[in-house]
Amino acid sequence: MGTLLGLVSGCGSNSSQAEEKVDTTKSLDGQTLFVYCGAGMTKPFGEIADQFKAETGCDIQVVYANAAQIQNQIQTTGEGDLFIAGSADELKPVQDKVSESIDLVKHIPVLAVKSGNPLGITGLNDLTGTGVEVVLGDGEATPIGKIANKALTDLGILNNVNVVARAATAPEIANALSVDECNAIIIWKENVPANAEIVNTPDLNAYVKTVPAAKLSSSANTEALAAFMTYLDSDPVKTIWEKNGYEVLN
Question: What's the family (predicted)?
């Protein structure tokens, strides 16, 4: 279930360059953008939204949810300015509502286990082993769940994996491993919990995705949206993505 958040401003820069930015975007003060964002990207996108408000005065209200929930809301309400999706594939169900999109960062799926890898899992095939319990994302509603299904199906082992639960969002998948509800998860790289480690395997290399920012045709706030799209391609934003475990595009 998504949560509507009015994000507060962070600290602005006192550099002359930052002052120039504020001077040229005073008209955004008091304006609001309404954005849908995949739940797994809550931390970096929240920081991005905070910094944009600090520099421009434009507030960003965000719904964080899984892809299916966001797609349904876009279709049923006809509202919103922007959709930050877990992969470009998630734009297809709402393609008629998208006016254009840009690619932001790589979205990398990984196999994660508890720190120390107590079961000695070396790759996806080991998920079929005796005593291995796995939590995956919802294969119908969330991008990482769809990727997990595809990867395990391509190996011909999906039905042999002991999937003890399906989670609606990447943070829920991470929590399942963190609190010992399972031995392994397939999750986005940036969502791996602190008490877990990534298994060094090439098994998921073919399933790397790209996070897009899609402008919605329902948007009426042309000025603020154009400014935010430009901001998303800036070095400060790329730095935020990188420090949260994402890989920026060339």
Answer: Belongs to the bacterial solute-binding protein ModA family.
